[in-house]
Design brief:
The complex is a heterodimer of chains A (about 350) and B (about 450).
Chain A (H helix, E strand, L loop, with lengths): L7 H5 L3 H26 L18 H10 L6 E4 L9 H8 L3 E3 L7 H13 L6 E5 L2 H5 L9 H7 L5 H6 L7 H16 L7 E2 L5 E2 L5 H13 L14 H16 L3 E6 L4 H10 L2 H16 L4 E5 L21 H11 L11
Helix pairs in contact in A: 2-9, 5-11
Chain B lengths: L5 H18 L3 H20 L1 H23 L2 H26 L14 H16 L9 H8 L13 H9 L6 H34 L8 H30 L16 H5 L4 H22 L5 H21 L3 H22 L7 H20 L3 H11 L14 H15 L2 H7 L4 H17 L12
Helix pairs in contact in B: 1-2, 2-3, 2-6, 3-4, 3-5, 3-6, 4-5, 8-9, 8-17, 8-18, 9-14, 9-16, 11-12, 12-13, 13-14, 14-15
The chains are: A alpha/beta (about 350), B mainly alpha (about 450).
Chain lengths: ~350, ~450
């Protein structure tokens, strides 16, 4: 019996151990392939491969890099969200004879202002003036867009532990990054569209504007989505945002810098809805009250431009419910910088 | 540390397997090694205070059952009952505490308390009935109650079955290793590739349930599959981990959504729990009632009452809230109704129709489990009945979810799972499993907790 040859069925069926070995080898092969793909393509631009342009719009790291490259260091820095993208540093420079930089980042929260201010302080290049956009939504919410941002983290925490640095590579083994790598490769093969916008050396946004025909539609669209009245559901200031802003002001005082804070405008149609359907009015009142109280303590002055008549604006000076055009920004700058003109050339 | 973490899959599990396999040939080390893995797992997953509670309950049960065996026959009944009541009282206190009925007491439900309490209760009752021998040592019973593959969410075990494998020479062959590895892969894939994305897709629908119309069917069907793939995925991972240690666990699911009637469904869904309640509640209660209350319309009446009562208790076992109670009552009434129907002669329905009706009945029941308030359940049922039109969303926006649900409807009715777990060892199957494993590992970053951990 012992010497009987195995049956054909038994011969055809590989042993379990060999099947498992094959499965392990195939799994390992696939895993290594996925990791290599993500490392080489680097779709989010975080591993430093740079074979391809990253697939996502990133604003924090590029702005910080541009700021560090600016020589001499800018004397005036604009902190804001995408609502301040069209605030021109060149216009500021022309009005003040001082070099300016636009450090506005997409989906900014007060935390981003604090991070950027800390980085400037850490690089010993704190400006003499900050122009800070402080929307009511930023003061009542502690929210900001999530953006993978190793450059900012490196600046704020250069002594980062090895394990924390290794965490940045966690994305290599995620489906999200693998899918993005494949999409990016697909775009490279089929021809990728031009980026929506990019930033110049002074941080100013370069890109196509919104056509007039589309603006009314854009207001409706933004009111139905990210800029719905529910954004102003809270009538109290967020304590974390307040605390972070106070730290920005502390840094200004410490570095002998002046802070000009303004409440950016909303499209009149959007503002009417906010005033009617949300706690916008009480949120704004509390913010103005807080700014007034800080003005006694810190080198700060503030302006409320939430309504277009405060700066001589019009409802056609918007790209959607909350993003003012360059012309609107110029008018606000004219008011804010009145009396800031210096008699000599750029420093 | 939970099943879905790199630390579990790549550190703890391999370490536990190596330790248990190394100790399997040394009788003196077998139980301590197993207990050590259970203690380490539970303390990492739930913390030391919860581990202390688990071990205390195990100790009380061990001592109580020990007394039972040495006491006179006349007092055994009472002692056995005391042990069971003590265990169940702790469970009930935490369930009521979690529901807020006991004020601030016991607001946090210890991990797996519903499962390990039932394991201990079944041990006490089995010894009392002389169906199994008492544990030879506290270590052995503690190894059973802390058995890490099942301690968090089952499947429910019987001590006798566990002890046979724990004390005997466990089979540690490649076939069992294969079953373990493949069950782990299939379970991981069920959870990360099906249950979690499905949960994310249906969450906005339930969050905005007041706008649901007939698309409520899509939301509820999605939830049904999320629940199944989540829980059966967990079970597969438990069966896989146990197989790697040399244990064969009882199956917990058998294609439940292919059931042809509601009794069939309960023979296929969470089988170890159904069997537990059948053996320790339904049958003893039926026998007792038949003896004492013959007036209850004979055996059929007794069966109906006991079915409804058992299902209500099953509902409450999930949590002391109105929705679990209503869900249990709903299924109890369905089971009692089906038992009546089966007795009616000349009544038959084509298999396809009865399968569809059963699925619809199960979906109607799941609405209760997904609704934190009676108002929400009523609103969703109304939407399913067509009282609120088509719903606010367009078919276009629900397209991907609809496609996923249709694929799952087909997949769960086809023997796909059996193919992945038990088909021949071909290169194609090996590649299919490798792709599933890698996709599941890549998806682990966005994981959600297992739904059944809350019970």
């Amino acid at each position: 019996m012992l010497n009987e040859p195995p049956t054909p069925a038994a011969r055809e069926r590989p042993p379990a151990a060999s099947f498992l070995r094959g499965l392990a080898a195939r799994s390992l092969l696939l895993l290594v392939a996925a990791i290599s793909l993500n490392l080489l393509v680097d779709p989010f631009g975080v591993h430093g491969g740079r074979l391809f342009e990253p697939i996502v719009l990133r604003t924090r790291a590029p702005k910080l890099r541009l700021y560090e490259q600016a020589r001499p260091a800018p004397a005036i820095v604009i902190l804001g969200s995408s609502r301040s993208f069209s605030m021109e540093p060149q216009y500021v420079a022309a009005r003040t004879s001082r070099r300016a930089f636009n450090a506005a980042v997409a989906g900014a929260g007060v935390r981003d202002y604090l991070d950027f201010a800390r980085c400037m302080a850490a690089r010993n290049s704190f400006p003499s003036m900050l122009i800070v956009a402080m929307g009511v939504e930023q003061a009542t919410l502690d929210a900001r867009a999530h953006e993978r941002d190793d450059a900012m983290t490196d600046c704020l925490d250069p002594q980062k532990a090895f394990w924390e640095r290794a965490q940045a590579y966690r994305g290599l083994v995620t489906l999200e990054e693998t899918w993005a790598s494949l999409r990016l490769l697909g775009l490279e093969l089929t021809g990728r569209p031009a980026p929506a916008y990019s930033f110049g050396p002074d941080g100013m946004t370069r890109g196509p504007g919104t056509s007039r025909l589309r603006v009314e539609q854009a207001v409706d669209d933004s009111l139905a989505a990210a800029w719905a009245p529910s954004l102003f559901d809270r009538d109290r200031l967020d304590p974390r945002s307040v605390g972070q802003f106070r730290q920005v002001l502390e840094l200004c005082r410490e570095h002998g810098a002046k802070a000009i804070v303004y409440l950016p405008p909303y499209h009149p149609r959007a503002l009417a809805r906010y005033l009617k359907e949300s706690h916008f009015a009480s949120g704004r009142a509390r913010l103005l009250e807080q700014l007034g109280s800080w003005a006694k303590e810190y080198p700060l002055r503030s302006y409320d431009f939430t309504e277009v008549n405060r700066f001589g604006g019009r409802d056609d000076m918007f790209e959607d419910a909350s993003h003012p055009t360059e012309e609107a920004n110029r008018r606000m700058l004219d008011i804010m910088l009145a009396g800031e003109t210096q008699g000599h050339g750029l420093p | 540390m939970v099943f879905l973490s790199y630390s579990y899959l790549f550190l703890f599990l391999p370490g536990a397997v190596l330790l248990c396999r190394a100790s399997v040939t040394r009788a003196a080390l077998r139980t301590p090694a197993l207990l050590l893995t259970g203690i380490v797992y539970y303390s990492l997953a739930a913390g030391l205070p919860q581990l202390a509670l688990l071990l205390a309950m195990t100790f009380v049960t061990f001592k109580g059952v020990g007394e039972l065996m040495t006491s006179p026959v006349a007092s055994r009944q009472r002692l056995g009952l005391m042990v069971v009541v003590a265990d169940l009282a702790v469970l009930a206190a935490f369930k009521l505490g979690e529901a807020g009925i006991l004020g601030p007491v016991g607001r946090v439900l210890p991990l797996g308390i519903s499962f390990y309490t039932f394991n201990l209760v079944s041990y006490g009752l089995d010894v009392r009935r002389r169906q199994t021998a008492p544990a030879p040592s506290f270590l052995s019973l503690a190894a059973f109650s802390t058995f890490f593959p099942t301690v968090a969410a089952g499947p429910l075990l019987r001590y006798g079955h566990f002890r046979e494998q724990e004390s005997g020479a466990r089979r540690l062959d490649a076939e069992l290793l294969e079953l373990g590895a493949l069950s782990l892969i299939v379970g991981l894939a069920k959870k990360t590739l099906v249950a979690d994305p499905l949960g994310a897709a249906i969450e906005p629908l339930f969050a905005d349930y007041e706008r649901l119309g007939l698309d409520a069917w899509l939301a509820v069907t999605g939830y049904a599959y999320q629940l199944y793939f989540d829980f059966s995925g967990y079970t597969d991972m438990a069966i896989g981990a146990a197989a790697l240690l040399g244990f064969r666990l009882p199956p917990n699911f058998n294609a439940p959504y292919t059931a042809v009637h509601i009794t069939d469904f309960w023979q296929r869904w969470h089988m170890t729990m159904s069997q537990w309640f059948r053996d320790y509640l339904f049958l003893p209660l039926s026998r007792a009632l038949l003896r004492r209350r013959p007036s209850l319309d004979g055996a059929d009446g007794v069966r109906a009452v006991c079915l409804v009562f058992t299902m209500v208790v099953i509902g409450l076992w999930h949590g002391a809230t109105w929705s679990f109670l209503a869900w249990g009552l709903f299924h109890g009434l369905l089971l009692a109704g089906h038992a009546r129907l089966r007795l009616a002669r000349g009544f038959s329905i084509p298999v396809g129709v009865s399968r569809a009706l059963t699925f619809v009945a199960v979906l109607v029941g799941w609405v209760l489990l997904r609704s934190p308030s009676p108002g929400m359940a009523a609103r969703i049922w109304g939407a399913m009945a067509g009282l609120h039109g088509w719903g606010a969303s367009s078919l276009h926006s629900r397209g991907p979810l609809l496609a996923a649900v249709i694929v799952l409807l087909v997949a769960t009715n086809a023997p796909l799972e059996r193919y992945l777990l038990h088909a021949g060892r071909s290169a194609f199957r090996s590649w299919a499993l490798a792709v599933l494993l890698v996709l599941a590992l890549l998806s682990m970053g966005a994981r959600r907790p297992f739904l059944y951990f809350q019970f």
